[in-house]
């Protein structure tokens, strides 16, 4: 590696990492929080088999799982202004990532809910709990322990998917790398560098996932 390239990589590292910490991570955290709220609501509506709500949820899931995330970003950011609705880049990204991830996570949570024995719901009714109380105190805690690993995988995938937000001018890590590359034109080195930073973020989340799984396993052992 020549001195010029080494100097470029050293200079670009904080300029790529900073948007990662101030844009990529907040975008992921905010969008995933909203996605989980959407997912739990959609999963519970389907689990309860409320006819109209179930159909609406399935339609929503069908649309967002069946169309590319990039197309969804373009429709919201570039398409909606034609209808008189203009959304700034970051909120547009949060909206799209939340709805897209919510659709996938809804199916994960629904499957986890259905894995809980039906007797648990009946037991809640027997002690005088309402449906919502039974779900909140008995069924959901068990289901979320089952759903934790796949939901963690979805979170890790979302960190990487945020790179698509560069296409609607959100200055996250990948967009910052593109801007630097436009000045120095070292695509191989710079894109490997940003890839390694994404790998670093994903590794930290993977470590946290394993730690969470160990704690959940220990909690389940105490319950038994």
Descriptive report:
The structure is a single chain. The protein is mostly helical. It is 84% helix and 0% strand. The chain contains eight helices and no strands. The chain has helices spanning 3-47, 51-66, 69-79, 89-115, 118-126, 131-161, 173-184, 187-223. Helix 1 runs antiparallel to helix 2 and helix 6 (131-161) runs antiparallel to helix 8. The radius of gyration is 21 Å and the shape is flat. The mean pLDDT is 92.
Summarize, please.
The chain has 224 residues and is mostly helical.
Provide the fold topology.
Layout: H1 3-47, H2 51-66, H3 69-79, H4 89-115, H5 118-126, H6 131-161, H7 173-184, H8 187-223
Helix pairs in contact: 1-2, 1-4, 1-7, 1-8, 2-4, 3-4, 4-6, 5-6, 6-8, 7-8
Q: Which features would summarize this protein structure in a list?
A:
single chain; 224 residues; mainly alpha; 8 helices; 0% strand
Which class of secondary structure composition applies to the elements?
mainly alpha
Strand content: under 5%
> Could you describe the largest sheet, including whether it forms a barrel?
none
Poorly predicted residue ranges: none
What would you report as the Rg, rounded to the nearest angstrom? 21 Å
As an assembly, this protein is single chain
What number is the mean pLDDT? 92
Shape label: flat
Helix content: over 70%
Order of helices and strands: HHHHHHHH
Q: Please count the beta strands (DSSP E, at least 2 residues each).
A: 0
Our measurement of the CA-to-CA distance between the termini, rounded to an integer number of angstroms, reads: 57 Å
Helix segment count? 8
